[in-house]
Each structure stands twice: as structure tokens, then as C-alpha cells.
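Please, structure for the following, as C-alpha cells.
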Amino acid sequence: MGFKCGIVGLPNVGKSTLFNALLSTIQAEAANYPFCTIEPNVGRVNVPDSRLDKLATIAGSAQVIPTQLEFVDIAGLVRGASKGEGLGNQFLAHIREVDAIIYMLRCFEDGNITHVEGVIDPMRDSEIVETELVLADLESLEKRLPALQKKAKTDKEAAEQVALIERILPIVSEGHPARNLELKDEEEKRQMKLLQLLTSKPVLYVCNVDEESAANGNALSNKVMEMAAKKKAPCVVVSARIEAEISMLSSEEDKKEFLSSLNLTETGLSRIIRAGYELLDLSTYFTVGPKEARAWTITSGTSAPAAAGVIHSDFEKGFIRAETIAYSDYITHNGEAGAKEAGKFRLEGKEYRVKDGDVLHFRFNN
């Protein structure tokens, strides 16, 4: 798995420009008018990880396969979207299954690019987006509750959902996101996931700034950073225009040179992915051999059998052992043979929790 991010925001904040840049393609039309994006654009991008290339070089792997991240670019929301304004809330359904939501906020002034609210104010824009998502959740919960209450008389699962909804409703009714509810245990977390509420998903704030502010942000993005810190949410500053320019460069050397000229050390994509992985508590492990070197994404703390199941369900069912080498040991001792000689090769069982960077080979019964 990688992870799936929905990108939401008001019209003309740079969502489609960023989406195009991330995919290094002109897949999403980017234009200076509201509702340019009507159908949601979905695209997968490779997750950059320098460790994978180093492992592949040592192992002489014929193929390098990174893990992937999926972006869903949703049509611009406006005030009243949950009640049918603009393009209405039909597009909100497209982000019910994502793992996290990116709030794309415009933090640049440009008289040539219109703003539906007339004035640039990312804090207000964030509030509009969140309000529309909260209202959509409120409507969803109120519609579902009567049927669940009837079913709850004879169905334990339905009764648990009713109890959870009754705890969530006062929160969303007051205009707050469902994620503000403190969940009691793992069962409640599972029930919350089943409800597929938009505001139960973690949020990553992305500030789209002008090119001059790409390295250090500006007064507008600083306000968003302060707000995000109070909410204990990650915030990334990017320039969609710069990302678009980088995506047009063919060689890695040209990209590095261009970034350096702007006092940047990495692309916005890399920052977004890193922030997203931290937000969702994700880790990466590797499988390495002469045929291929491959990265796999798991939730941090995943057991070895469950990690094996990411490759194939049969690996999890028939799991015996995980041949394990830490990434640093694999590099230091120049591969599997060297790691074995140095005593850094381990056989781990079902209770082992896979660490970020582990190089694994699974033994299993067919």
C-alpha cells in the first residue's frame, strides 16, 4: 500500500497546478476560472526514497520498484457546497475513502488570478472548507441514524454505531470536526472508520505561496503554520508554480540545480510525502534481490506476518519467519552476505514488529 490523499480547497488556489506537477503531466486542466476541475482527477506517483536506489545498487537489482502515493484532486469547494452551491457536495463522496485530506490554501497575491471570495485569506478559506466538510458529515449522520436505531434493537454492531454517532453529533452540530472526539479504544476506532466521515480523517495543510516565498514562506503562510501547530497538524509550504517548472525538467541534475538556485533542498512532493507518512504513522520496508529491489509501505509497528500480507495474502497465512537485516547494516556491510558474516542477519517470528528500513525476505508455507 501507499497512501491516498484527497486534495481539497476553494477554486483557483492551485490544486490542479500542484496535481499536474506531482504527476509530472498535464492530466488535470489548470485554468483561471472556478470549477475548472469537474470530475475528480486521480493519479499515482512514485514515492522518492534514496535508500531504495542504494539497496538496488548493492544487490545489482535489475528493476527498482518504489512504493506509490495516490492523489485525488477534488473540484473546488465554495460556501454552501454541502447544500448544493457551486458544484454541490456530489464530489465530497470521492474523498470518503482517502486516508488523509490535504487542505490546499492560497497564500499568494496575484491580480491575474481571481479568488471566489474576492480577498486572499487562507484562514478564512480553511474555515470554509472545514465547515462544508462538517456540514456534509452532519447530514450523513442524521440520515443514517434513524435506520441504525431500529436495527440496533437486535444488532450489536448497529447498537455500537448508534452509541458512537450519538457522541459525534454534538461535536459536528457545533461546527467542529469529528476527529475532535476522543475515541475510547481500538473498537471505536474501527467503528469510526466504518462511518467514513470526512472530518474524521487527518489533515495536512499545504500553503501554496509565490515563487519568492517558496524557501521560507510569507506572512500568509506563517498564519496557517501557527493555526496548524495549535491543531497539532502538519503544514507544508510549497509553490505550485515551482513544482510545475521542476516537473518539466528531465534530468535529476537539472532539478537539483534549479532547486539550489531557489535555496531549496528538496521538492514540494518530497515534503508532502514525508509529512503525510508522519501524519499517518507509516513506515517503509524493502525486499531486495537480483530481479528487483522494492519498497513496501506499512503502518508503523505492523507485525511481520501482516507486513508479509502486503505483498500477498498467502505470505501472511503461511508465515514462518522473516529473514531480517536493518537498512544501515545492509549498507555498512555491503549486502546480505556481508551482513550475515557480521552477525547482522536475524530470523524474526510472528511477534516481530517491522522497523522502518528493514530489508526482509519471508519464509512461508504454500
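Residues 304 and 350 are 6 Å apart (CA to CA). The two ends are 23 Å apart (CA to CA).
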